[in-house]
Amino acid sequence: MKVFRFCLALMGLAALPMAALADIADQVTDFTLDNGLQVVVIEDHRAPVVVHMLWYRAGSADETAGVSGVAHFLEHLLFKQTKTLAAGEFSRVVAENGGSDNAFTSTDFTAYFQRVAADRLDLMMRMEADRMMNLDLSEEDILTEREVIIEERNQRVENSPGALFREQSNAALYLNHRYGVPVIGWRHEMEKLSLSDALAFYRRYYAPNNAVLVVAGDVLPDEVREMAVKNYGSLPANPDLHPRARPQEPPQIAARRLTYRDERVAQPYITRNYLAPERDPGDQSTAAALSLLADILGGGQTSVLTQKLQFETSTAVYSAAFYDGLSLDDSNFGFVVVPSADVTLQAAEDALDQALAGFLETGVDLAQLDRIKTQFAASEIYARDNVQGLANSYGAALTSGLELADIHAWPAAVQAVSPEDIMSAAKELLNEERSVTGWLMKPEEEAE
Amino acid sequence: MKVFRFCLALMGLAALPMAALADIADQVTDFTLDNGLQVVVIEDHRAPVVVHMLWYRAGSADETAGVSGVAHFLEHLLFKQTKTLAAGEFSRVVAENGGSDNAFTSTDFTAYFQRVAADRLDLMMRMEADRMMNLDLSEEDILTEREVIIEERNQRVENSPGALFREQSNAALYLNHRYGVPVIGWRHEMEKLSLSDALAFYRRYYAPNNAVLVVAGDVLPDEVREMAVKNYGSLPANPDLHPRARPQEPPQIAARRLTYRDERVAQPYITRNYLAPERDPGDQSTAAALSLLADILGGGQTSVLTQKLQFETSTAVYSAAFYDGLSLDDSNFGFVVVPSADVTLQAAEDALDQALAGFLETGVDLAQLDRIKTQFAASEIYARDNVQGLANSYGAALTSGLELADIHAWPAAVQAVSPEDIMSAAKELLNEERSVTGWLMKPEEEAE
Question: Which residues, at least 6 apart from A241, have a Cβ–Cβ distance to it below 8 Å?
Fold first, then answer.
């Protein structure tokens, strides 16, 4: 029942509608409880509904080496028994109250959410606060739920050549950082995940001073505060919580390539991934330029790659660029090119390189940039309509190293990007030494 | 003053003379103290000299993520002040007694040794036992010695394109295991190594139940036992020591390539590294076959690569194969080909692939295999002459996951390898999906 978003996140398809947040700052209230729980309230009184999300600043990249997958495993286990709720009772109560609930894990966060009628908020808080502290796991839970996550890996990764390919490519992109390890975990490590592994992660990271509560919908800040104090206020902070510091990348000085061959590949393609800077607090301008660059190069019908590789030369049947700047540490900027029939992967790669080199020479098309900025501004407006999307945006940003001020500054940061900023970011980015080029193909295919 | 062996170990040039140990088992006595300290005595009464080595089952691959280099850093720091010795006093006392001392760090172990007149053994034990427990480090020590190891990295790695290339290639070979992290450390992590990082490693791993004492030379087992009990016997075991289990590799399913370009490259070359099984306790037959395979393919003038690439075609000016089976976890089997003038790296790589494919078809030359086995047996005999080499062999093996019985079984395991064993090991090994191919070249050179 849990949505598992890492595939989307890795592919950059889950770009959050951060754009809409510039002018809605006055809908947003934030405060922090004495135990360190950060609370963000987003008011939207159009319908008597509320989204209650609890975000932990703990994702797969916060795991200890050797227990990959434990962040996601624990996410599953949080639906088991607590000292006051039976296994499965949480979701049953939500459903009985007409709501829906879910959870997801990424490299930088784990989040739990419910969408219910606004008058059920207190109940949600009570149950969510309960499982932050009172999880009561048994060895039996470990055995059964471990089978579930392994089966999840089977379905999402082992059965998908593209997912296996991404996993190996991602491992090659990161030389030192845990972003190279899959969120769902390496299978051989998942098979050994134990009760003590899960509890160690739980005790280390599940605490009010490592969480962000986002409540969005038909609520008033004062009532949320009162309710939050009542339900979450008495939970003890973890006094041993350390600042979030993961192993960082060394200088990447050697261009990497990899080839994954699999019988099940229906359509071969190439990818290119570059290590790329992420949005940092108070310093989002490079990431803003890269976001626009991704749209310029591979964001739709008028993009550089689509024009060059699909319309002008018929080299590719599909091409795209993606970048997700929402990341605690260095992110990636990627390309995919799916060649047309009879076009080799080498020819597709050469065409990509030529298109990029051509772009670096000719620069940004000003009309295209204007169009993209306008679309971006429009998406800000539309995003306000989706209260759950807004809650998601705030939670993800606040658990990925950003502050509220950064969220609100982002739309202006994007509009402020100049063509020169984009070219400068592109030149810095497109350094093959910090890249991995991947070929996905059938076993029998010749490389050239 | 410390010899730093990781470069040698990675290149396989420091192949230890394990061969000589089959028939000398009766020179070897081993016992374990009550506190868990394993002691190995190797008698050699030809000269009144003794080698005293203390080996810890703790190397760079036992480090926590983010503090790379701390194992080697601590090795340096062990020459600082203890509660009873001033900084530098240890080595001064050794020298004043006519001896020499040194230390080295690898992925799987850290070792300290002295070579002195046999009647100074008690003094060596007293000082070595002292620094196992009584290190008395200051912030000042950290600051000064950190500069030393960073300078060591400058000299050994930053100033050497080949070393930088190996580092990046090694990081690409291992997707999950800490063997992908350099023994000396990533520079950006070395710069942050702190007193608490060093002490954490020291307290976790420096204990009698995590160490092997090797005493070799003009000594009798009983006197060593008595002296060891006296000096080491009262040191407390670490009750929290866990079995040694590091994160292992996931299935490697995508062949990797990398190119490192550097102005300082005088001679471009290619390398190919395959993930390879290591010697395991009670199971050394595959590693024995791989050891012979390395000699057959690239171990000198009559090897396959030298014949094909140098004598028959003049493609290469140098070629070699290397494999070091002494490793706690999966090791690597590597090739290097240095092309002749006017031969491209692509042509050199193609020639390597052709030579390997040809070998897989034609199989082992029986006369060559006999010659190599005879040389191997001869090296067993010669190795006995070098008491320090013997001590080294035992210490390295016993801290790399092997037992005494494995050391003594190794020469016979090598002699028992059949041509079929070698071909079977070669076919299993030479799987491009578990390989990294590296090109080292000047910036301006064209790849093809």
Answer: A204, A207, A209, A210
Q: Tell me: pLDDT of B270 over 70.
A: yes
In this predicted structure, the answer to whether residue B440 has a pLDDT above a threshold of 50 is: yes
The pLDDT tens digits for A209-256 are 999 999 999 999 999 999 999 999 999 999 999 999 899 999 999 999
Give the side-chain half-sphere CA count within 13 A for A145.
26
Tell me the residue type at B176.
N
Phi, psi of A333 (to 5 degrees): -120, 120
Nearest-neighbour CA in chain B from A325: distance (Å): 23
**What length is written for chain B?**
448
Could you tell me the pTM of the whole model? Answer: 0.84
Please, what is the end-to-end C-alpha distance for chain B in angstroms?
44
Cβ-Cβ pairs closer than 8 A, A with B, add up to 101
Q: Which residues contact B403 (CB under 8 A, 6 or more apart)?
A: B281, B282
Residues A78-97, mean pLDDT to the nearest whole number: 93
Strand order of the β-sheet with A211-217 is: A28-32, A38-43, A211-217, A49-56, A110-117, A100-105
Amino acid at B359: F
CB contact under 8 A, B66 and A245: yes
Report the alpha-carbon distance of residue A363 to residue A426 in Å, rounded: 10
Q: Tell me which residue in A176, A251, A256 faces B258 most closely, judged by beta carbons.
A: A256
DSSP at A119: G
Cα B136–B137–B142 angle (5° rounding)?
Answer: 170
Query: B258, A257: Cβ pair inside 8 Å?
Result: yes
Chain-chain contact of B165 with A438 (C-beta, under 8 angstroms) = no
Segment A42-62 shows an average pLDDT of 95
**DSSP string for B392-413:** HHHHHHHTTT--HHHHHHHHHH
Report residue B371 as tokens.
Answer: 């010659």
Contacts of A26 (CB under 8 A, 6+ apart): none
Q: Which residues of A412-421 are buried (b: 16+ CB within 10 A; e: fewer)?
A: ebbbebeeeb
List chain B residues with CB under 8 Å of A164: 253
How far is B232 from A330, CA to CA, in rounded Å? 48
Q: Centre a 10 Å sphere on the Cβ of residue B167 and count the other Cβ atoms it contains.
A: 25
- CA angle B325–B329–B331, rounded 5-degree value: 45
Give the burial class of B242: count Cβ atoms within 10 A of its Cβ; 0-12 exposed, 13-18 middle, 19 or more buried. exposed
Q: pLDDT digit string (tens) for A248-301?
A: 999 999 999 999 999 999 899 999 999 999 999 999 999 999 999 999 999 988
- Please say if the pLDDT value at position B8 is more than 50: no
CA B405 to chain centre: 20
Residue A437 has pLDDT above 90, yes or no: yes
Catalytic residue among B43, B63, B75, B145: B75
The answer to whether residue B318 neighbours chain A at the CB level (below 8 Å) is: no
Which band of pLDDT confidence, cut at 50, 70 and 90, is reported for residue A23?
Answer: low
Q: What is the pLDDT of residues B201-226, one digit of tens each?
A: 999 999 999 999 999 999 999 999 99
Sorted by sequence, the CB contacts under 8 Å of residue A430 that are 6+ apart come out as: A274, A356, A360
Is A257–B252 a contact, with Cβ atoms under 8 angstroms apart? no
Q: Which of B256, B269, B445 is the best substitution to test chain A (most A C-beta atoms within 10 A)?
A: B256
Average pLDDT, chain B: 92
In the numeric block, the tokens 């390890």 are attached to A181
Distance between CA B137 and CA B142 in Å, rounded? 8
pLDDT band at B380 (very low <50, low <70, confident <90, very high): confident
Dist. CA B347–CA A92, nearest whole Å: 65
This complex has an ipTM of 0.75
Q: Is the pLDDT of residue B22 over 90?
A: no
